[in-house]
Amino acid sequence: MKRTRFTDEQIIGILAEHETGAKCADLCRKHGMSEGTFYNWKAKFGGMTVSEAKRLKALEDENAKLKKLPAEQMPDLAAMKDLVSRKW
């Protein structure tokens, strides 16, 4: 996955600047990003606080870990079923 140059705290700070009245084009030029990136951030982090963003990140990480567990267990389960189904 592509790593970003900005932390969640920095992103929320940039969005807060926009909410106080700064123009999107000026913010993008100042921070060196595209307007598309800005609007993606706004869709994801709009109206969040830093603590909410950290909680969201933790939940996403936990969700990814839980999704990976069944994928790791499937080969083991298939091998066990194969052993059990054989006639001795």
Description of the molecule:
The protein has 88 residues and is an all-alpha fold. It has 2 domains: 1-48; 50-87. It has 4 helices and no strands. It has helices at residues 8-19, 24-31, 35-45, 50-85. Helix 1 packs across helix 3 (35-45). It is rod-shaped, with a radius of gyration of 22 Å. The model has no long low-confidence stretch (mean pLDDT 88). This is Transposase. Pfam families: HTH_Tnp_1 (PF01527). One of its GO terms (biological process) is DNA transposition.
Characterize the largest beta sheet: strand count, sense, and whether it forms a barrel.
none
- Average pLDDT figure: 88
Q: What's the domain count?
A: 2
The gross shape turns out to be rod-shaped
Counted by DSSP, the helix tally is 4
| Estimated radius of gyration | 22 Å
Task: Encode the helix/strand succession as letters.
Answer: HHHH
The total beta strand count reads 0
Helix content: over 70%
Strand content: under 5%
Structural class: mainly alpha
Low-confidence stretches: none
Protein name: Transposase
InterPro entries: Homeodomain-like_sf, Transposase_8, Transposase_8_domain
Pfam families: HTH_Tnp_1 (PF01527)
Organism: Jannaschia rubra
